[in-house]
Amino acid sequence: MRILRPQVRPGRPPHPAVRRAAPAAVLVAALLATAGCGSGGEPARPATAATASPPAAGPAAGGASPPAVPAAQGPVTVPDTLRFTAQTLDGTAFSAADLAGRPVVLWFWAPWCATCASQAWTVAEIAPRYRDTVPIIGVAGLGEQRAMKEFVTEFDLAGVPQLDDRAGTLWRRFEIVEQSTFVIIDRDGKVSHQGFLDGEDLTRRVTALAG
Questions:
Q1: Which helix (H) or strand (E) holds 179?
Q2: 3-state secondary structure 128-182
Q3: Which among 99, 95, 94 is positioned nearest to 77, based on CA atoms?
Q4: Does residue 163 sit in helix, strand or coil?
Q5: Residue 5: CA atoms inside 13 Å, Cβ hemisphere, count?
Q6: How many structural domains does the chain have?
Q7: What is the domain extent for residue 198?
Q8: Is residue 9 part of a domain?
Q9: Helix, strand or coil for residue 80?
Q10: E strands within the chain?
Q11: Where in the sequence is the signal peptide annotated (predicted)?
């Protein structure tokens, strides 16, 4: 095979256009090299959303931010009216301080009291409904424990905490002089009512406190 080679005439200078093109090519190469170099030696990159935004405050990067947590509430102050302990008719320890921050109804009754018996049905009906919002607590006194337990069974009051106050400690503390007496304590620990309530009045007051 015959290979054709370009013929170059010795002693003839390059064409003027070639002489002009060479410096231009060198200049372009220099500009490209300069554009491709930064202060750190790498080409500049456009900022993305991740790099342009400041890092979010919180735990180490890479994990999702935790949901906002409401500010912790301070401890509930126990008012003087609820600073007492007792024992229920079934022998369970009871602390009134656990009720702080909610309205509370104390029902002072005796097992032989006809008026207490007439109110017992209403208490048995509404107390479970408002157990978490307006607790109703029975305070049994002026009788024998056996008679108190029979009263609770007869009127379906097993779902209502019943304190055994045969010694009269709580009756004297709240200055109860007759039965049946309801003592209503508001959210701030103040007594808003002390005295008699029929079934309709009791339901109305408890419903209002729960709302």
A1: none
A2: CCCCCCCCEEEEECCCCHHHHHHHHHHCCCCCCCEEECCCCHHHHHCCCCCCCEE
A3: 99
A4: strand
A5: 3
A6: 1
A7: 80-210
A8: no
A9: helix
A10: 85-87, 93-95, 104-109, 136-140, 162-164, 181-185, 191-195
A11: 1-35
Whole-structure pTM value: 0.65
Q: Has residue 69 been placed in a domain?
A: no
In 3D space, the residue among 169, 160, 166 whose CA is nearest the CA of residue 111 turns out to be 166
Residues facing 140 on adjacent strands: 109, 164
Instruction: Yes or no: say if 146 and 211 are a contact pair by the CB < 8 Å rule.
Output: no
Q: How many CA atoms lie within 13 A of 138 on its CB side?
A: 32
Structure tokens at 37: 């170099």
The answer to whether 115 touches 180, Cβ cutoff 8 Å, is yes
* Separation of alpha carbons 147 and 139, rounded Å: 14
Write the CATH number for 177. 3.40.30.10
Per the CB < 8 A criterion, the answer to whether 105 and 182 are in contact is yes
On whether the CB atoms of residues 84 and 96 are closer than 8 A, the answer is yes
CA distances from residue 135 to 8, 129, 131, 138, 152 in whole angstroms, order as listed = 113, 9, 5, 10, 17
Amino acid at 16: P
The tens digit of pLDDT for each residue in 20-61 reads: 434 433 333 333 333 343 334 443 443 333 333 343 444 333
Residues sharing a CB contact under 8 Å with residue 166, sequence separation 6 or more, in sequence order: 140, 141, 143, 144, 145, 148
Q: 10 Å Cβ neighbour count for 138?
A: 26
Cis peptide, bond prior to residue 65, ω within 30 of zero: no
